[in-house]
Design a protein that fits this description.
With 443 residues, this protein is an alpha/beta fold. The protein contains 13 helices and 17 strands. A hairpin with a 2-residue loop joins strand 16 and strand 17. 53% of the residues are buried. Bound molecules: zinc ion. The site of zinc ion has 7 residues, from loops.
Protein backbone atom coordinates (compact mmCIF):
# COMPACT_ATOMS: atom_id res chain seq x y z
CA UNK A 1 0.00 0.00 0.00
CA UNK A 2 1.59 3.28 -1.15
CA UNK A 3 0.56 6.86 -0.52
CA UNK A 4 2.18 10.15 -1.50
CA UNK A 5 1.97 13.26 0.69
CA UNK A 6 2.38 16.07 -1.83
CA UNK A 7 3.46 19.71 -1.76
CA UNK A 8 3.93 20.20 1.97
CA UNK A 9 4.62 23.86 2.70
CA UNK A 10 7.18 22.77 5.31
CA UNK A 11 8.23 19.37 6.62
CA UNK A 12 9.65 19.56 10.14
CA UNK A 13 11.61 16.31 10.02
CA UNK A 14 13.18 15.95 13.52
CA UNK A 15 15.72 13.78 11.65
CA UNK A 16 19.42 13.41 12.47
CA UNK A 17 20.15 16.98 11.32
CA UNK A 18 16.83 18.41 12.59
CA UNK A 19 16.26 19.85 9.13
CA UNK A 20 13.12 21.54 7.79
CA UNK A 21 12.24 20.99 4.12
CA UNK A 22 10.22 23.44 2.02
CA UNK A 23 7.77 22.41 -0.72
CA UNK A 24 8.52 18.71 -0.41
CA UNK A 25 6.79 15.34 -0.74
CA UNK A 26 6.87 12.14 1.31
CA UNK A 27 6.27 8.67 -0.08
CA UNK A 28 4.93 6.00 2.25
CA UNK A 29 5.02 2.30 1.41
CA UNK A 30 3.94 -0.60 3.60
CA UNK A 31 3.83 1.53 6.72
CA UNK A 32 7.31 2.99 6.23
CA UNK A 33 8.62 6.30 4.83
CA UNK A 34 10.36 5.24 1.61
CA UNK A 35 11.26 8.53 -0.10
CA UNK A 36 11.40 12.25 0.69
CA UNK A 37 12.03 14.91 -1.94
CA UNK A 38 10.60 17.46 -4.32
CA UNK A 39 8.31 16.59 -7.22
CA UNK A 40 8.07 12.86 -6.52
CA UNK A 41 6.10 10.84 -9.08
CA UNK A 42 2.50 10.25 -8.10
CA UNK A 43 0.93 7.00 -9.22
CA UNK A 44 -1.37 5.73 -6.46
CA UNK A 45 -3.20 7.47 -3.65
CA UNK A 46 -2.09 10.92 -2.59
CA UNK A 47 -2.76 13.54 0.07
CA UNK A 48 -2.53 17.19 -0.86
CA UNK A 49 -0.45 18.90 1.83
CA UNK A 50 -0.28 22.34 0.23
CA UNK A 51 -0.87 25.00 2.87
CA UNK A 52 0.19 22.47 5.52
CA UNK A 53 3.07 21.89 7.89
CA UNK A 54 3.99 18.22 8.22
CA UNK A 55 5.57 16.88 11.40
CA UNK A 56 6.27 13.47 12.87
CA UNK A 57 3.24 12.18 14.75
CA UNK A 58 3.29 13.33 18.36
CA UNK A 59 4.11 10.80 21.08
CA UNK A 60 2.32 10.71 24.41
CA UNK A 61 4.35 9.04 27.14
CA UNK A 62 1.90 9.15 30.06
CA UNK A 63 -1.86 8.83 30.27
CA UNK A 64 -4.69 7.16 32.16
CA UNK A 65 -7.21 6.82 29.36
CA UNK A 66 -9.97 5.54 31.65
CA UNK A 67 -10.08 8.92 33.37
CA UNK A 68 -11.81 10.57 30.39
CA UNK A 69 -14.98 9.37 32.13
CA UNK A 70 -14.24 11.49 35.20
CA UNK A 71 -13.20 14.86 33.84
CA UNK A 72 -14.02 17.94 35.87
CA UNK A 73 -15.63 16.03 38.74
CA UNK A 74 -16.74 18.83 41.08
CA UNK A 75 -15.21 17.40 44.29
CA UNK A 76 -11.82 16.97 42.63
CA UNK A 77 -11.59 20.15 40.63
CA UNK A 78 -9.54 22.11 43.14
CA UNK A 79 -7.84 19.45 45.28
CA UNK A 80 -4.16 18.55 45.66
CA UNK A 81 -2.98 15.12 44.42
CA UNK A 82 -3.83 12.95 47.44
CA UNK A 83 -7.20 14.63 48.07
CA UNK A 84 -8.00 14.47 44.37
CA UNK A 85 -7.29 10.72 44.37
CA UNK A 86 -9.50 10.15 47.41
CA UNK A 87 -12.39 11.93 45.67
CA UNK A 88 -12.07 9.83 42.53
CA UNK A 89 -11.22 6.33 43.81
CA UNK A 90 -14.83 5.51 44.85
CA UNK A 91 -16.10 6.54 41.40
CA UNK A 92 -13.45 4.50 39.57
CA UNK A 93 -14.31 1.45 41.68
CA UNK A 94 -17.64 1.32 39.79
CA UNK A 95 -15.98 0.98 36.36
CA UNK A 96 -16.05 -2.24 34.34
CA UNK A 97 -14.94 -3.45 30.89
CA UNK A 98 -17.25 -1.17 28.90
CA UNK A 99 -16.19 1.92 30.84
CA UNK A 100 -12.55 1.04 30.13
CA UNK A 101 -13.18 0.47 26.42
CA UNK A 102 -15.29 3.55 25.72
CA UNK A 103 -13.20 5.93 27.83
CA UNK A 104 -10.06 4.65 26.08
CA UNK A 105 -11.59 5.28 22.66
CA UNK A 106 -12.49 8.83 23.70
CA UNK A 107 -9.00 9.48 25.04
CA UNK A 108 -7.33 7.97 21.98
CA UNK A 109 -9.52 9.91 19.55
CA UNK A 110 -8.80 13.14 21.41
CA UNK A 111 -5.08 12.40 21.16
CA UNK A 112 -5.28 11.49 17.47
CA UNK A 113 -7.13 14.69 16.62
CA UNK A 114 -4.35 16.63 18.35
CA UNK A 115 -1.63 14.96 16.27
CA UNK A 116 -0.70 11.94 18.38
CA UNK A 117 0.22 8.67 16.64
CA UNK A 118 1.83 6.74 19.51
CA UNK A 119 0.64 6.72 23.08
CA UNK A 120 1.40 4.93 26.26
CA UNK A 121 -1.32 4.25 28.81
CA UNK A 122 -1.05 3.50 32.51
CA UNK A 123 -4.01 1.43 33.72
CA UNK A 124 -3.57 0.55 37.38
CA UNK A 125 -7.06 -0.47 38.52
CA UNK A 126 -9.17 -3.36 37.30
CA UNK A 127 -12.57 -3.32 39.01
CA UNK A 128 -15.51 -5.52 38.06
CA UNK A 129 -13.74 -7.66 35.47
CA UNK A 130 -11.94 -4.83 33.63
CA UNK A 131 -8.69 -5.88 31.93
CA UNK A 132 -5.80 -4.24 30.09
CA UNK A 133 -7.14 -6.07 27.02
CA UNK A 134 -10.16 -3.69 26.99
CA UNK A 135 -7.91 -0.71 26.20
CA UNK A 136 -5.83 -2.70 23.70
CA UNK A 137 -9.04 -3.55 21.82
CA UNK A 138 -9.96 0.16 21.82
CA UNK A 139 -6.58 1.19 20.38
CA UNK A 140 -6.69 -1.58 17.78
CA UNK A 141 -10.05 -0.38 16.51
CA UNK A 142 -8.82 3.21 16.27
CA UNK A 143 -5.51 2.26 14.67
CA UNK A 144 -3.27 4.06 17.17
CA UNK A 145 0.21 2.74 17.96
CA UNK A 146 -0.17 1.75 21.58
CA UNK A 147 2.08 1.04 24.57
CA UNK A 148 -0.32 -0.01 27.35
CA UNK A 149 1.23 -0.66 30.72
CA UNK A 150 -0.08 -3.16 33.26
CA UNK A 151 -0.36 -0.93 36.30
CA UNK A 152 -1.25 -2.08 39.81
CA UNK A 153 -2.06 -1.07 43.36
CA UNK A 154 -1.66 -3.46 46.27
CA UNK A 155 -1.71 -1.39 49.47
CA UNK A 156 -5.29 -0.50 50.38
CA UNK A 157 -6.69 1.63 53.17
CA UNK A 158 -6.65 -1.21 55.68
CA UNK A 159 -2.86 -1.49 55.19
CA UNK A 160 -2.31 2.25 55.56
CA UNK A 161 -2.45 2.99 51.82
CA UNK A 162 -4.46 5.60 49.97
CA UNK A 163 -6.79 3.57 47.68
CA UNK A 164 -9.89 1.74 49.00
CA UNK A 165 -9.37 -1.99 49.48
CA UNK A 166 -11.78 -2.75 46.64
CA UNK A 167 -9.33 -1.26 44.12
CA UNK A 168 -6.20 -3.13 45.16
CA UNK A 169 -5.05 -6.55 43.99
CA UNK A 170 -2.98 -9.35 45.47
CA UNK A 171 0.66 -9.02 44.45
CA UNK A 172 0.98 -12.63 43.22
CA UNK A 173 -1.99 -12.08 40.91
CA UNK A 174 -0.57 -8.79 39.62
CA UNK A 175 2.66 -10.46 38.52
CA UNK A 176 0.76 -13.38 36.94
CA UNK A 177 -1.45 -11.00 34.99
CA UNK A 178 1.61 -9.01 33.83
CA UNK A 179 2.98 -12.22 32.32
CA UNK A 180 -0.40 -13.00 30.75
CA UNK A 181 -0.77 -9.62 28.99
CA UNK A 182 2.86 -9.54 27.85
CA UNK A 183 2.57 -13.03 26.37
CA UNK A 184 -0.75 -12.20 24.74
CA UNK A 185 -0.01 -8.75 23.30
CA UNK A 186 3.62 -7.58 23.45
CA UNK A 187 5.37 -7.28 20.09
CA UNK A 188 9.12 -6.59 20.32
CA UNK A 189 9.62 -6.21 16.56
CA UNK A 190 10.38 -3.00 14.70
CA UNK A 191 7.15 -1.35 13.61
CA UNK A 192 5.18 -2.96 16.46
CA UNK A 193 1.67 -1.58 16.97
CA UNK A 194 1.44 -2.84 20.58
CA UNK A 195 4.11 -3.04 23.26
CA UNK A 196 3.21 -3.81 26.84
CA UNK A 197 5.00 -2.38 29.88
CA UNK A 198 4.97 -3.21 33.60
CA UNK A 199 3.86 -0.33 35.79
CA UNK A 200 3.01 -0.48 39.52
CA UNK A 201 1.06 2.73 40.13
CA UNK A 202 3.47 4.55 42.42
CA UNK A 203 5.83 3.86 45.32
CA UNK A 204 3.01 4.79 47.73
CA UNK A 205 0.47 2.29 46.41
CA UNK A 206 2.51 -0.95 46.18
CA UNK A 207 5.09 -2.68 48.37
CA UNK A 208 8.84 -2.47 48.04
CA UNK A 209 8.81 -6.16 47.10
CA UNK A 210 6.39 -5.64 44.23
CA UNK A 211 8.52 -2.76 42.86
CA UNK A 212 11.57 -5.04 42.94
CA UNK A 213 9.78 -8.09 41.48
CA UNK A 214 8.16 -5.99 38.74
CA UNK A 215 11.62 -4.82 37.64
CA UNK A 216 12.92 -8.40 37.61
CA UNK A 217 9.90 -9.58 35.63
CA UNK A 218 10.17 -6.75 33.09
CA UNK A 219 13.86 -7.47 32.48
CA UNK A 220 13.15 -11.18 32.16
CA UNK A 221 10.46 -10.47 29.56
CA UNK A 222 12.35 -7.67 27.78
CA UNK A 223 9.62 -5.05 28.36
CA UNK A 224 9.77 -1.54 29.77
CA UNK A 225 9.00 -0.26 33.28
CA UNK A 226 6.90 2.75 34.18
CA UNK A 227 5.56 4.45 37.29
CA UNK A 228 4.85 7.84 38.90
CA UNK A 229 7.80 9.42 40.70
CA UNK A 230 8.58 12.56 42.68
CA UNK A 231 5.33 14.20 41.65
CA UNK A 232 4.98 16.81 44.40
CA UNK A 233 6.14 17.78 47.90
CA UNK A 234 3.76 15.30 49.58
CA UNK A 235 5.27 12.54 47.48
CA UNK A 236 8.83 13.46 48.58
CA UNK A 237 7.75 13.70 52.24
CA UNK A 238 6.12 10.26 52.00
CA UNK A 239 9.28 8.75 50.53
CA UNK A 240 11.50 10.26 53.23
CA UNK A 241 9.16 9.14 56.00
CA UNK A 242 8.33 5.60 54.79
CA UNK A 243 11.48 4.63 52.94
CA UNK A 244 14.07 6.86 54.58
CA UNK A 245 15.34 8.14 51.27
CA UNK A 246 14.43 10.33 48.30
CA UNK A 247 12.53 8.83 45.33
CA UNK A 248 15.62 8.66 43.10
CA UNK A 249 17.45 6.53 45.64
CA UNK A 250 14.39 4.31 46.12
CA UNK A 251 14.11 3.80 42.37
CA UNK A 252 17.80 3.01 41.98
CA UNK A 253 17.83 0.55 44.90
CA UNK A 254 14.95 -1.46 43.39
CA UNK A 255 16.23 -1.63 39.80
CA UNK A 256 14.07 1.22 38.56
CA UNK A 257 16.70 3.11 36.54
CA UNK A 258 17.98 2.45 33.03
CA UNK A 259 17.05 3.03 29.37
CA UNK A 260 14.14 0.58 29.78
CA UNK A 261 12.51 2.69 32.52
CA UNK A 262 10.55 5.91 32.35
CA UNK A 263 8.97 7.82 35.22
CA UNK A 264 6.01 10.20 35.06
CA UNK A 265 6.24 13.75 36.46
CA UNK A 266 9.60 13.96 38.28
CA UNK A 267 8.65 17.51 39.27
CA UNK A 268 10.75 17.35 42.42
CA UNK A 269 13.93 15.62 41.22
CA UNK A 270 17.00 17.28 42.73
CA UNK A 271 20.38 17.77 41.06
CA UNK A 272 21.74 14.39 42.14
CA UNK A 273 18.64 12.61 40.89
CA UNK A 274 18.86 14.41 37.55
CA UNK A 275 22.49 13.23 37.25
CA UNK A 276 21.39 9.68 38.12
CA UNK A 277 18.71 9.73 35.42
CA UNK A 278 21.16 11.17 32.85
CA UNK A 279 23.87 8.65 33.68
CA UNK A 280 21.48 5.70 33.55
CA UNK A 281 19.46 7.03 30.57
CA UNK A 282 16.27 6.79 32.64
CA UNK A 283 13.40 8.55 30.87
CA UNK A 284 10.94 11.15 32.11
CA UNK A 285 7.33 11.73 31.03
CA UNK A 286 6.84 15.45 31.55
CA UNK A 287 3.17 16.35 32.19
CA UNK A 288 3.01 20.15 32.42
CA UNK A 289 -0.78 20.65 32.40
CA UNK A 290 -1.35 18.05 35.11
CA UNK A 291 1.46 19.58 37.19
CA UNK A 292 -0.18 23.01 36.84
CA UNK A 293 -3.68 21.64 37.42
CA UNK A 294 -2.72 19.85 40.66
CA UNK A 295 -0.39 22.64 41.77
CA UNK A 296 2.52 20.21 41.88
CA UNK A 297 5.15 22.61 40.58
CA UNK A 298 7.36 23.08 37.53
CA UNK A 299 9.48 20.08 36.55
CA UNK A 300 13.16 20.97 35.98
CA UNK A 301 12.98 20.04 32.31
CA UNK A 302 15.63 22.57 31.24
CA UNK A 303 18.10 21.06 33.70
CA UNK A 304 17.10 17.52 32.69
CA UNK A 305 17.59 18.22 29.00
CA UNK A 306 20.91 19.98 29.61
CA UNK A 307 22.12 17.01 31.65
CA UNK A 308 21.05 14.55 28.94
CA UNK A 309 17.97 12.98 30.53
CA UNK A 310 15.59 11.58 27.85
CA UNK A 311 12.37 13.63 28.18
CA UNK A 312 9.02 13.01 26.52
CA UNK A 313 5.64 14.60 26.98
CA UNK A 314 2.49 13.30 28.61
CA UNK A 315 -1.05 14.64 28.92
CA UNK A 316 -1.47 12.50 32.07
CA UNK A 317 -4.95 11.31 32.92
CA UNK A 318 -7.88 13.26 31.66
CA UNK A 319 -9.09 13.79 35.22
CA UNK A 320 -6.01 15.81 36.15
CA UNK A 321 -5.60 17.92 33.03
CA UNK A 322 -8.62 17.70 32.21
CA UNK A 323 -7.90 17.89 28.54
CA UNK A 324 -6.00 15.38 26.44
CA UNK A 325 -4.78 17.62 23.64
CA UNK A 326 -1.14 16.75 23.04
CA UNK A 327 -0.14 19.68 20.87
CA UNK A 328 -1.60 22.02 23.50
CA UNK A 329 0.46 20.12 26.07
CA UNK A 330 3.61 20.79 24.04
CA UNK A 331 2.86 24.51 24.07
CA UNK A 332 2.32 24.35 27.83
CA UNK A 333 5.70 22.61 28.25
CA UNK A 334 7.38 25.43 26.34
CA UNK A 335 5.61 28.14 28.32
CA UNK A 336 6.24 26.58 31.71
CA UNK A 337 10.02 26.37 31.23
CA UNK A 338 9.92 30.05 30.31
CA UNK A 339 8.08 30.86 33.53
CA UNK A 340 10.83 29.13 35.48
CA UNK A 341 13.90 30.04 33.45
CA UNK A 342 13.22 32.98 31.13
CA UNK A 343 12.01 33.58 27.59
CA UNK A 344 14.89 31.75 25.93
CA UNK A 345 14.56 28.64 28.12
CA UNK A 346 12.73 26.54 25.52
CA UNK A 347 12.07 27.22 21.86
CA UNK A 348 8.94 26.12 20.00
CA UNK A 349 11.13 23.70 18.01
CA UNK A 350 12.63 22.14 21.13
CA UNK A 351 9.20 21.62 22.68
CA UNK A 352 8.06 19.99 19.44
CA UNK A 353 11.16 17.78 19.52
CA UNK A 354 10.24 16.63 23.04
CA UNK A 355 6.68 15.97 21.87
CA UNK A 356 7.82 13.82 18.92
CA UNK A 357 11.29 12.31 18.81
CA UNK A 358 11.88 12.86 22.51
CA UNK A 359 8.82 10.79 23.37
CA UNK A 360 9.77 8.09 20.88
CA UNK A 361 13.20 7.83 22.54
CA UNK A 362 11.64 7.60 26.01
CA UNK A 363 9.38 4.74 24.84
CA UNK A 364 12.26 2.87 23.23
CA UNK A 365 11.02 3.52 19.69
CA UNK A 366 13.89 4.74 17.51
CA UNK A 367 11.77 3.57 14.56
CA UNK A 368 9.24 6.36 15.28
CA UNK A 369 9.25 10.11 15.94
CA UNK A 370 11.11 11.30 12.83
CA UNK A 371 10.33 11.96 9.20
CA UNK A 372 13.23 10.13 7.60
CA UNK A 373 13.56 7.31 5.10
CA UNK A 374 13.17 3.96 6.84
CA UNK A 375 11.19 5.30 9.81
CA UNK A 376 7.58 4.27 10.45
CA UNK A 377 5.02 6.39 8.61
CA UNK A 378 3.50 8.11 11.66
CA UNK A 379 2.81 11.56 10.28
CA UNK A 380 0.78 14.61 11.35
CA UNK A 381 -0.39 17.13 8.77
CA UNK A 382 -1.38 20.56 10.10
CA UNK A 383 -3.37 23.07 8.04
CA UNK A 384 -1.64 26.43 8.48
CA UNK A 385 -3.91 28.30 6.07
CA UNK A 386 -6.45 29.07 8.78
CA UNK A 387 -7.08 31.86 11.21
CA UNK A 388 -4.70 30.57 13.94
CA UNK A 389 -1.69 30.84 11.63
CA UNK A 390 -2.70 33.91 9.61
CA UNK A 391 0.10 36.47 9.79
CA UNK A 392 2.68 34.01 11.08
CA UNK A 393 6.17 34.60 9.69
CA UNK A 394 7.14 31.04 10.64
CA UNK A 395 4.13 28.72 10.25
CA UNK A 396 6.32 25.76 11.27
CA UNK A 397 6.59 27.33 14.74
CA UNK A 398 3.25 25.62 15.40
CA UNK A 399 3.48 25.96 19.17
CA UNK A 400 3.63 29.76 19.02
CA UNK A 401 0.83 30.18 16.50
CA UNK A 402 -0.93 27.28 14.83
CA UNK A 403 -3.83 24.86 14.84
CA UNK A 404 -4.55 22.64 17.85
CA UNK A 405 -6.17 19.97 15.72
CA UNK A 406 -4.66 18.04 12.81
CA UNK A 407 -6.04 18.01 9.30
CA UNK A 408 -4.76 14.53 8.49
CA UNK A 409 -3.00 11.87 10.54
CA UNK A 410 -1.26 8.69 9.44
CA UNK A 411 -0.26 5.82 11.69
CA UNK A 412 1.83 3.07 10.09
CA UNK A 413 0.82 4.61 6.77
CA UNK A 414 -2.93 4.31 7.49
CA UNK A 415 -4.96 7.51 7.55
CA UNK A 416 -6.89 7.58 10.84
CA UNK A 417 -7.80 11.29 10.63
CA UNK A 418 -9.02 12.76 7.35
CA UNK A 419 -10.03 16.43 7.07
CA UNK A 420 -10.20 16.70 10.84
CA UNK A 421 -12.39 13.62 11.40
CA UNK A 422 -11.69 10.13 12.68
CA UNK A 423 -11.94 7.55 9.88
CA UNK A 424 -11.83 4.38 11.97
CA UNK A 425 -14.69 4.90 14.44
CA UNK A 426 -18.05 6.64 14.53
CA UNK A 427 -16.87 9.26 17.01
CA UNK A 428 -20.22 11.00 17.64
CA UNK A 429 -21.68 7.62 18.71
CA UNK A 430 -18.76 6.94 21.04
CA UNK A 431 -19.14 10.42 22.55
CA UNK A 432 -22.85 9.75 23.10
CA UNK A 433 -22.09 6.45 24.83
CA UNK A 434 -19.36 8.03 26.97
CA UNK A 435 -21.77 10.73 28.15
CA UNK A 436 -24.40 8.10 28.97
CA UNK A 437 -21.83 6.17 31.04
CA UNK A 438 -20.78 9.39 32.81
CA UNK A 439 -24.41 10.19 33.65
CA UNK A 440 -24.88 6.70 35.07
CA UNK A 441 -21.81 7.18 37.30
CA UNK A 442 -23.16 10.54 38.51
CA UNK A 443 -26.46 8.96 39.43
ZN1 LIG B 1 -0.39 9.82 36.00
Amino acid sequence: MAILIKNATTIVTMDATLSDLAQADIRVENGVISEIGKGLDSTGDSIDASGCVVTPGLVNTHHHLYQTLTRAVPGGQDALLFGWLQTLYPIWSRFGPEEMFISAQIGLAELALSGCTLTSDHLYLYPNGARLDDTIAAAHEIGMRFHPTRGAMSIGESDGGLPPDALVEREEFILEDCVRVIDAHHDPREGAMVRVGVAPCSPFSVSRELMRDAALLARDKGVMLHTHLAENDEDIAYSLEKFGCRPGQYAEDLGWTGPDVWHAHCVKLDGQEIDLFARSRTGVAHCPCSNCRLGSGIAPVRAMRDAGVPVGLGVDGSASNDSGNLVAEARQAMLLQRVANGANAMSAREALYIATRGGAEVLGRPDCGQIAVGKRADIAIWDVSGVESAGSWDPAALLLAGPTRVKHLLVEGRQIVRDGHMTSIDLPRVVERQNALARALMG
